[in-house]
Amino acid sequence: MRSNRAAAAMQPKNDSMTSVIMLMVTLFSCSYIAGRLWQDAEIRSQLISIDPSIRYQDKDSVSVDETLRLIDCKEQQKKLANAELELTAAKNQGYKPMNKTIVEGHRSVVVGIFTSFSGRSRRTSSRKNWIPTGTALKELESDKGIIIRYVIGRSLNRGDMLDKQIDRENEETEDFLILEDHVESEDNLTQKSRLFFNKAVNTWDADFYVKMDDNVGLNIDMMGSMLSSHRDKPRVYVGCMKSGTVINDPNAQWYEPDWWKFGEEKSEYNRHAAGQVYGLSRSLAMYISINSAYLKEYKNEDVAVGTWILGLDTEHIDDRNLCCSPNAGLFLILSFFFIVL
Protein backbone atom coordinates (compact mmCIF):
# COMPACT_ATOMS: atom_id res chain seq x y z
CA MET A 1 0.00 0.00 0.00
CA ARG A 2 2.83 2.34 0.92
CA SER A 3 4.68 1.48 -2.28
CA ASN A 4 1.68 2.40 -4.38
CA ARG A 5 1.45 5.79 -2.68
CA ALA A 6 5.18 6.36 -3.27
CA ALA A 7 4.88 5.48 -6.94
CA ALA A 8 1.95 7.85 -7.29
CA ALA A 9 3.98 10.59 -5.65
CA MET A 10 6.92 10.04 -8.03
CA GLN A 11 4.76 10.11 -11.15
CA PRO A 12 4.44 13.96 -11.33
CA LYS A 13 8.22 14.30 -10.88
CA ASN A 14 8.92 11.92 -13.80
CA ASP A 15 6.42 13.74 -15.98
CA SER A 16 8.08 17.07 -15.10
CA MET A 17 11.55 15.72 -15.99
CA THR A 18 10.29 14.35 -19.30
CA SER A 19 8.75 17.70 -20.15
CA VAL A 20 12.02 19.51 -19.44
CA ILE A 21 13.98 17.08 -21.64
CA MET A 22 11.47 17.42 -24.47
CA LEU A 23 11.64 21.21 -24.19
CA MET A 24 15.45 21.16 -24.39
CA VAL A 25 15.36 18.88 -27.44
CA THR A 26 12.82 21.18 -29.07
CA LEU A 27 14.93 24.27 -28.39
CA PHE A 28 18.06 22.56 -29.73
CA SER A 29 16.21 21.47 -32.89
CA CYS A 30 14.89 24.97 -33.46
CA SER A 31 18.36 26.43 -33.00
CA TYR A 32 19.87 23.92 -35.43
CA ILE A 33 17.20 24.53 -38.10
CA ALA A 34 17.52 28.30 -37.69
CA GLY A 35 21.29 28.05 -38.01
CA ARG A 36 21.03 25.98 -41.17
CA LEU A 37 18.52 28.37 -42.67
CA TRP A 38 20.78 31.33 -41.82
CA GLN A 39 23.82 29.53 -43.28
CA ASP A 40 21.87 28.71 -46.45
CA ALA A 41 20.80 32.34 -46.82
CA GLU A 42 24.35 33.59 -46.16
CA ILE A 43 25.90 31.23 -48.71
CA ARG A 44 23.22 32.08 -51.25
CA SER A 45 23.99 35.76 -50.73
CA GLN A 46 27.69 35.10 -51.38
CA LEU A 47 26.83 33.04 -54.45
CA ILE A 48 24.62 35.79 -55.85
CA SER A 49 27.50 38.25 -55.41
CA ILE A 50 29.61 35.94 -57.59
CA ASP A 51 26.89 35.02 -60.10
CA PRO A 52 23.88 37.43 -60.08
CA SER A 53 21.89 35.11 -62.35
CA ILE A 54 21.24 32.82 -59.39
CA ARG A 55 18.94 35.51 -57.89
CA TYR A 56 16.24 34.51 -60.36
CA GLN A 57 16.43 30.79 -59.71
CA ASP A 58 14.00 28.91 -57.50
CA LYS A 59 15.31 29.21 -53.94
CA ASP A 60 14.91 25.49 -53.35
CA SER A 61 16.64 24.49 -56.58
CA VAL A 62 20.17 24.95 -55.19
CA SER A 63 21.08 22.97 -52.09
CA VAL A 64 23.72 24.03 -49.61
CA ASP A 65 26.15 21.36 -50.86
CA GLU A 66 25.60 22.37 -54.48
CA THR A 67 26.12 26.00 -53.51
CA LEU A 68 29.44 25.17 -51.82
CA ARG A 69 30.58 23.28 -54.91
CA LEU A 70 29.68 26.22 -57.13
CA ILE A 71 31.58 28.65 -54.91
CA ASP A 72 34.61 26.37 -54.91
CA CYS A 73 34.43 26.15 -58.70
CA LYS A 74 34.37 29.94 -58.97
CA GLU A 75 37.38 30.22 -56.67
CA GLN A 76 39.29 27.68 -58.75
CA GLN A 77 38.47 29.63 -61.90
CA LYS A 78 39.90 32.77 -60.29
CA LYS A 79 43.08 30.93 -59.31
CA LEU A 80 43.41 29.53 -62.84
CA ALA A 81 42.97 32.97 -64.37
CA ASN A 82 45.63 34.39 -62.05
CA ALA A 83 47.99 31.53 -62.91
CA GLU A 84 47.50 32.19 -66.62
CA LEU A 85 48.34 35.86 -66.09
CA GLU A 86 51.49 34.90 -64.19
CA LEU A 87 52.49 32.45 -66.93
CA THR A 88 52.04 35.12 -69.59
CA ALA A 89 54.18 37.51 -67.60
CA ALA A 90 56.86 34.83 -67.22
CA LYS A 91 56.87 34.21 -70.98
CA ASN A 92 57.30 37.91 -71.65
CA GLN A 93 60.33 37.88 -69.34
CA GLY A 94 62.00 34.96 -71.10
CA TYR A 95 60.67 32.02 -69.02
CA LYS A 96 62.79 32.98 -66.03
CA PRO A 97 62.43 30.25 -63.39
CA MET A 98 61.32 31.33 -59.91
CA ASN A 99 63.71 29.05 -57.99
CA LYS A 100 67.02 30.26 -59.38
CA THR A 101 69.71 31.97 -57.34
CA ILE A 102 71.07 34.79 -59.46
CA VAL A 103 74.35 36.34 -58.34
CA GLU A 104 73.73 40.08 -58.09
CA GLY A 105 74.54 42.10 -61.21
CA HIS A 106 74.31 41.53 -64.95
CA ARG A 107 77.28 39.88 -66.68
CA SER A 108 78.57 39.96 -70.23
CA VAL A 109 79.68 36.34 -70.58
CA VAL A 110 80.11 33.22 -68.49
CA VAL A 111 82.93 30.91 -69.62
CA GLY A 112 82.80 27.32 -68.43
CA ILE A 113 86.06 25.43 -68.91
CA PHE A 114 85.40 21.70 -68.84
CA THR A 115 88.11 19.99 -66.82
CA SER A 116 88.68 16.66 -65.09
CA PHE A 117 90.35 15.22 -62.01
CA SER A 118 93.49 14.59 -64.06
CA GLY A 119 93.58 18.16 -65.43
CA ARG A 120 95.52 19.85 -62.62
CA SER A 121 98.58 20.54 -64.82
CA ARG A 122 96.42 22.06 -67.57
CA ARG A 123 94.62 24.28 -65.07
CA THR A 124 97.92 25.44 -63.61
CA SER A 125 99.26 26.28 -67.08
CA SER A 126 96.05 28.15 -67.98
CA ARG A 127 96.22 30.25 -64.82
CA LYS A 128 99.80 31.19 -65.64
CA ASN A 129 99.09 32.08 -69.26
CA TRP A 130 95.63 33.58 -69.73
CA ILE A 131 93.24 33.14 -66.79
CA PRO A 132 93.52 35.83 -64.08
CA THR A 133 93.76 34.66 -60.49
CA GLY A 134 92.93 36.10 -57.11
CA THR A 135 92.06 39.79 -57.12
CA ALA A 136 92.54 40.03 -60.89
CA LEU A 137 89.85 37.40 -61.44
CA LYS A 138 87.40 39.32 -59.26
CA GLU A 139 88.23 42.56 -61.09
CA LEU A 140 87.58 40.83 -64.41
CA GLU A 141 84.13 39.94 -63.12
CA SER A 142 83.31 43.35 -61.66
CA ASP A 143 84.91 45.57 -64.33
CA LYS A 144 84.23 43.64 -67.53
CA GLY A 145 81.42 41.34 -66.46
CA ILE A 146 83.31 38.19 -67.53
CA ILE A 147 82.96 35.08 -65.36
CA ILE A 148 85.47 32.24 -65.84
CA ARG A 149 85.01 28.94 -64.03
CA TYR A 150 86.43 25.44 -64.31
CA VAL A 151 83.50 23.03 -64.59
CA ILE A 152 83.74 19.61 -62.98
CA GLY A 153 81.45 17.00 -61.46
CA ARG A 154 81.89 14.74 -58.46
CA SER A 155 83.68 11.44 -58.10
CA LEU A 156 81.78 8.19 -58.48
CA ASN A 157 82.86 7.50 -54.90
CA ARG A 158 81.57 10.80 -53.57
CA GLY A 159 83.72 12.38 -50.92
CA ASP A 160 86.87 10.42 -51.80
CA MET A 161 90.38 11.80 -52.35
CA LEU A 162 89.52 13.11 -55.84
CA ASP A 163 86.66 15.24 -54.51
CA LYS A 164 88.77 16.47 -51.61
CA GLN A 165 91.59 17.53 -53.95
CA ILE A 166 89.16 19.60 -56.04
CA ASP A 167 87.65 21.15 -52.92
CA ARG A 168 91.10 22.12 -51.62
CA GLU A 169 92.09 23.58 -55.00
CA ASN A 170 88.84 25.53 -55.14
CA GLU A 171 89.45 26.94 -51.66
CA GLU A 172 92.76 28.33 -52.95
CA THR A 173 91.62 29.61 -56.37
CA GLU A 174 87.84 30.12 -56.06
CA ASP A 175 87.43 29.48 -59.79
CA PHE A 176 85.39 26.25 -59.94
CA LEU A 177 81.78 25.56 -60.80
CA ILE A 178 81.11 22.15 -59.27
CA LEU A 179 78.20 20.14 -60.65
CA GLU A 180 77.02 18.24 -57.59
CA ASP A 181 74.56 16.08 -59.57
CA HIS A 182 77.10 14.97 -62.18
CA VAL A 183 79.50 12.03 -61.91
CA GLU A 184 82.69 13.12 -63.66
CA SER A 185 83.39 10.89 -66.67
CA GLU A 186 84.78 11.28 -70.18
CA ASP A 187 81.91 9.12 -71.39
CA ASN A 188 79.16 11.48 -70.22
CA LEU A 189 80.11 14.93 -71.52
CA THR A 190 76.63 15.51 -72.93
CA GLN A 191 75.06 15.36 -69.48
CA LYS A 192 77.84 17.60 -68.20
CA SER A 193 77.04 20.23 -70.85
CA ARG A 194 73.34 20.08 -70.09
CA LEU A 195 73.93 20.51 -66.35
CA PHE A 196 76.47 23.27 -66.94
CA PHE A 197 74.07 25.44 -68.94
CA ASN A 198 71.30 24.70 -66.47
CA LYS A 199 73.38 25.78 -63.47
CA ALA A 200 75.07 28.71 -65.21
CA VAL A 201 71.88 30.47 -66.29
CA ASN A 202 70.43 29.98 -62.82
CA THR A 203 73.52 31.43 -61.18
CA TRP A 204 74.54 34.34 -63.43
CA ASP A 205 72.39 36.64 -65.55
CA ALA A 206 74.63 36.99 -68.61
CA ASP A 207 74.34 37.77 -72.32
CA PHE A 208 76.35 34.70 -73.41
CA TYR A 209 77.45 31.35 -72.02
CA VAL A 210 80.60 29.79 -73.46
CA LYS A 211 81.69 26.18 -73.13
CA MET A 212 85.31 25.28 -73.81
CA ASP A 213 87.82 22.52 -73.11
CA ASP A 214 90.76 22.95 -70.76
CA ASN A 215 93.33 22.27 -73.49
CA VAL A 216 92.59 25.53 -75.32
CA GLY A 217 92.85 29.14 -74.23
CA LEU A 218 91.02 32.34 -75.15
CA ASN A 219 92.07 35.91 -75.77
CA ILE A 220 89.59 37.30 -73.25
CA ASP A 221 89.33 40.83 -74.66
CA MET A 222 88.85 39.67 -78.25
CA MET A 223 86.28 37.09 -77.15
CA GLY A 224 84.30 39.76 -75.30
CA SER A 225 84.45 42.07 -78.29
CA MET A 226 83.35 39.35 -80.69
CA LEU A 227 80.39 38.29 -78.58
CA SER A 228 79.30 41.87 -77.89
CA SER A 229 78.88 42.38 -81.64
CA HIS A 230 76.07 39.79 -81.53
CA ARG A 231 74.39 41.05 -78.36
CA ASP A 232 71.38 42.54 -80.12
CA LYS A 233 70.52 39.25 -81.83
CA PRO A 234 67.83 37.23 -80.02
CA ARG A 235 69.20 33.69 -80.46
CA VAL A 236 72.86 33.19 -81.32
CA TYR A 237 74.90 29.98 -81.60
CA VAL A 238 78.52 30.83 -82.34
CA GLY A 239 81.46 28.53 -82.94
CA CYS A 240 83.51 26.70 -85.54
CA MET A 241 80.63 25.14 -87.47
CA LYS A 242 81.04 21.68 -88.98
CA SER A 243 79.03 18.59 -89.83
CA GLY A 244 80.92 15.36 -90.54
CA THR A 245 79.93 11.78 -91.16
CA VAL A 246 77.89 9.98 -88.53
CA ILE A 247 80.04 7.17 -87.11
CA ASN A 248 78.15 3.88 -86.91
CA ASP A 249 81.11 1.60 -86.17
CA PRO A 250 81.01 0.55 -82.47
CA ASN A 251 84.80 0.19 -82.49
CA ALA A 252 85.44 3.74 -83.76
CA GLN A 253 86.38 6.62 -81.44
CA TRP A 254 83.38 8.84 -82.16
CA TYR A 255 80.79 6.08 -82.42
CA GLU A 256 77.21 7.31 -82.10
CA PRO A 257 74.85 4.57 -80.80
CA ASP A 258 71.84 6.47 -82.18
CA TRP A 259 73.41 6.92 -85.62
CA TRP A 260 70.31 5.61 -87.40
CA LYS A 261 68.31 8.65 -86.23
CA PHE A 262 70.42 10.83 -88.52
CA GLY A 263 69.59 8.81 -91.65
CA GLU A 264 71.07 5.90 -93.54
CA GLU A 265 74.68 4.76 -93.34
CA LYS A 266 77.28 7.42 -94.19
CA SER A 267 74.83 10.17 -93.35
CA GLU A 268 76.13 13.48 -92.01
CA TYR A 269 75.39 15.23 -88.77
CA ASN A 270 73.39 18.43 -88.75
CA ARG A 271 75.45 21.62 -88.61
CA HIS A 272 76.91 22.17 -85.16
CA ALA A 273 79.82 23.92 -83.45
CA ALA A 274 82.99 22.00 -82.66
CA GLY A 275 83.15 21.09 -79.00
CA GLN A 276 86.49 22.77 -78.17
CA VAL A 277 84.79 26.16 -77.79
CA TYR A 278 81.34 27.55 -78.61
CA GLY A 279 78.89 30.04 -77.19
CA LEU A 280 75.15 30.37 -76.74
CA SER A 281 73.13 33.51 -76.15
CA ARG A 282 71.07 33.63 -72.97
CA SER A 283 67.78 32.64 -74.61
CA LEU A 284 69.31 29.41 -75.98
CA ALA A 285 71.01 28.53 -72.71
CA MET A 286 67.69 29.22 -70.96
CA TYR A 287 65.92 26.90 -73.40
CA ILE A 288 68.33 24.10 -72.49
CA SER A 289 67.82 24.81 -68.79
CA ILE A 290 64.01 24.76 -68.99
CA ASN A 291 63.87 21.60 -71.10
CA SER A 292 66.82 19.91 -69.43
CA ALA A 293 64.89 16.82 -68.33
CA TYR A 294 63.59 16.11 -71.85
CA LEU A 295 66.66 16.61 -74.04
CA LYS A 296 68.15 13.59 -75.77
CA GLU A 297 71.71 12.92 -74.62
CA TYR A 298 73.58 11.86 -77.73
CA LYS A 299 76.99 10.30 -77.25
CA ASN A 300 78.90 13.24 -78.72
CA GLU A 301 78.41 16.41 -76.69
CA ASP A 302 78.88 18.94 -79.51
CA VAL A 303 76.42 17.05 -81.73
CA ALA A 304 73.90 16.91 -78.90
CA VAL A 305 73.98 20.67 -78.25
CA GLY A 306 73.63 21.42 -81.97
CA THR A 307 70.69 19.01 -82.19
CA TRP A 308 68.93 20.51 -79.15
CA ILE A 309 68.67 23.93 -80.80
CA LEU A 310 68.23 22.71 -84.38
CA GLY A 311 64.48 23.25 -84.32
CA LEU A 312 64.73 26.79 -82.94
CA ASP A 313 64.86 29.99 -84.92
CA THR A 314 68.58 30.41 -84.27
CA GLU A 315 71.34 32.29 -86.07
CA HIS A 316 74.32 29.97 -86.53
CA ILE A 317 77.51 32.04 -86.66
CA ASP A 318 80.47 30.23 -88.17
CA ASP A 319 83.45 32.06 -86.67
CA ARG A 320 86.64 30.52 -88.05
CA ASN A 321 88.64 32.22 -85.30
CA LEU A 322 87.16 29.58 -83.01
CA CYS A 323 88.47 26.66 -85.06
CA CYS A 324 91.27 24.94 -83.17
CA SER A 325 93.86 24.74 -85.91
CA PRO A 326 97.37 26.27 -85.81
CA ASN A 327 97.02 27.02 -89.53
CA ALA A 328 94.29 29.57 -88.80
CA GLY A 329 96.97 32.07 -87.87
CA LEU A 330 95.19 33.16 -84.68
CA PHE A 331 96.62 30.58 -82.32
CA LEU A 332 99.64 30.51 -80.05
CA ILE A 333 100.71 26.98 -79.13
CA LEU A 334 101.54 26.92 -75.42
CA SER A 335 103.01 23.53 -74.53
CA PHE A 336 99.78 21.56 -74.84
CA PHE A 337 96.95 23.96 -75.63
CA PHE A 338 95.97 26.70 -78.09
CA ILE A 339 95.13 30.32 -77.49
CA VAL A 340 92.00 31.02 -79.54
CA LEU A 341 91.42 34.44 -81.13
TrEMBL record:
Membrane topology: Single-pass type II membrane protein
Enzyme class, first EC level, given as a word: transferase
Listed cofactors: Mn(2+)
Enzyme Commission code: 2.4.1.-
Coiled-coil residues: none
Chief site of localization: Golgi
Domain of life, source organism: Eukaryota
GO (cellular component) term, any one: Golgi membrane
Molecular function GO terms recorded: galactosyltransferase activity
Location(s) in or outside the cell: Golgi apparatus membrane
Pathway: Protein modification; protein glycosylation
PANTHER family: BETA-1,3-N-ACETYLGLUCOSAMINYLTRANSFERASE, HYDROXYPROLINE O-GALACTOSYLTRANSFERASE HPGT1
Entry keyword set: Glycosyltransferase, Golgi apparatus, Manganese, Membrane, Signal-anchor, Transferase, Transmembrane, Transmembrane helix
Classification via Pfam families: Galactosyl_T
Segments crossing the lipid bilayer: 20-38
Name recorded for this polypeptide: Hexosyltransferase
Family: Belongs to the glycosyltransferase 31 family.
